[in-house]
Every structure is written in C-alpha cells, then in structure tokens.
C-alpha cells in the first residue's frame, strides 16, 4: 500500500514538472513577463501617487512609504523613484484628490489588467467579463493592494502602541510583547501573501478558492523576496549598468527588476493552474 502511494506521488511530481515546462514554453512566460514589466513601469508612479494621496490623511509619512519600497528596490532605482516622485507630488494636494485621483488609479490598474490577461492564459480561459467589468476588477484589485500596503505601513506605526495596550491594560504576560514584535518583523511576508492570494483568486476569469491558490501565492512571495534581494546584491556588487547605459542605468535596473518580479508572479499563477488540473485528474 505504501509503495503504491509512493508511485502515485512520484507520477504526480513527474506530471507537474512536465506540465510546468510545457506551460512555461507554450504560455510564453518569458514574453509575458516582458510585457508586464512595461505595464508595471507605466503603473508605478500613478500607484505611488495614489498611495501618497491617501497617506496625507494618515499618520504616515512619504518617507515611510519609500522606506517600504527601498527594502527590495535594487541599486540606484530608489534614487530614481524618490526624485521623480517628490517632483510629481510637489503639486497641490487638491489636484491629486479630484480628477487626478481617478486618473492615477485608472493608470495604476494597467499593471493589474495585464496580470489578469496573463493569468487567463495560464488557466486556458477567455475573458468572459465585459471590458468595463474586467477593468473594474482591475481597479478593485489595485485598491485592495493599496489597502493592504497601508495596513503594512500603519502596523509598524501603531504596532508598539497596540502591544503596550494589551500588555498594560489587559494584563497579558510580557511574552506577548516578544511575540508581537516577532510578528511585526514578518509583516511584509504576510502582506505579500495576502496581495497575491487576492490577485490569484479574483484576477482570472474562472471560479477559484483559497485552496486553489495558496501554494502559488507562498511560492511567489518567497520567490519574489529572494529574487529582489539577490538582484539587489548583484547590482550593488557586480552589475555596473550606468557604465553601459549612462543616465538610463537606473531605468534599466528598474525594468529588469520588474521583469523578474513579473516572471515570479506568473510562475506562481502557472503553479496554481497546474495543481488545479492535477487535482481534477482521476
């Protein structure tokens, strides 16, 4: 009986590997990653501007947001992002809150809209939603990302105060503070997993549940963090893109980072699609 289970398990692993290689080639993950990198670049500043617009009404500074980005942004890209963002946001806030807010979130949703198309391809489904419904879904997912990122920014700000409240007023043991501080260290991991689960469940034009996407979400989270840190280390120590591209070096590094990030996200989606297909096999 045990031998039979091992054989079935090995067959599933082989099917997964074969299916993954085939889908990676057939779905043109490399080409789609390049497309997504382009849309990510177009969406980056509108997305950050919309975030900063909301941050103006919360006890969070623009530096807090940039600090969150700087944890993973490679090389000189933080200087590029920070200088351009500060230049853009020198406009009066009222401009950003009126038509600008609508325009920025519409532009920011372009990246998510491209992910929707790519994940539909992973699941071999056509977009069954109308143009406006699909676009509203992209805007909804973009807004969900904004909310989750704001929570990630707010928790470190209020995290200590919340911990002290439970510790002092509710008489919880001192060990709670250590556990609470430990939890706050992994905020970025849980935020990324949450964002990707929401993305993987709602983006494709097919019915999916949490159980269908959590594996790909965790893989993409760990993979993205590893790729970002590894690429950042490479850029700082080995890759001198400024020598080759001059003043465009920062943009090239940013595009490569987006390209690698997009590939990890798409691979996570492909993993979910393959696992779902294997589960449906007899």
From TrEMBL:
Keyword flag Membrane: yes
Transmembrane segments: 36-58, 136-155, 162-179, 185-202, 214-236, 248-275
Entry's Gene Ontology cellular component terms: plasma membrane
Keywords, ordered alphabetically: Cell membrane, Membrane, Transmembrane, Transmembrane helix
Classification via Pfam families: Virul_fac_BrkB (PF03631)
Subcellular location: Cell membrane
Membrane topology listed for this record: Multi-pass membrane protein
Listed NCBIfam families: yihY_not_rbn
Protein name as annotated: YihY/virulence factor BrkB family protein
Species of origin: Calidifontibacillus erzurumensis
